[in-house]
Amino acid sequence: MDLSDLSAGQCAQIINMHEMEPIMRKKLLNLGFLPKANIELLRLAPMGDPVVIRCANSSIALRKSVVEKIKVELLA
Q: Which residue range(s) make up the domain with 28?
């Protein structure tokens, strides 16, 4: 499932980001978006873009085009 499929308040674990451009993937890895990291979708903008995500005690806003390339597994 993609990170973009989550609703606000749902938590998930990152599986991979292989579809993403290498430069963006490197930036996200430096921010703590590592495989098996727990993330929470905090907010969606009214038009769906950007999306606010919490990862490693930091909140970051990402474009929907980037969020669609992050594969996650939903946590119970």
A: 3-74
For residues 1 and 31, give the distance between their C-alpha atoms in angstroms, rounded to a whole number.
Answer: 22
CATH of the domain at 63: 2.30.30.90
| Residue-wise pLDDT tens digits, 28-58 | 998 888 999 999 999 998 887 899 999 988 8
Query: Are 72 and 39 in contact, with CB atoms under 8 Å apart?
Result: yes
Per the omega criterion (within 30 degrees of 0), is the bond before 22 cis?
no
- Number of structural domains, the chain? 1
Residues 6+ apart with CB under 8 A from 71: 1, 2, 3, 14, 15, 16, 17, 18, 19
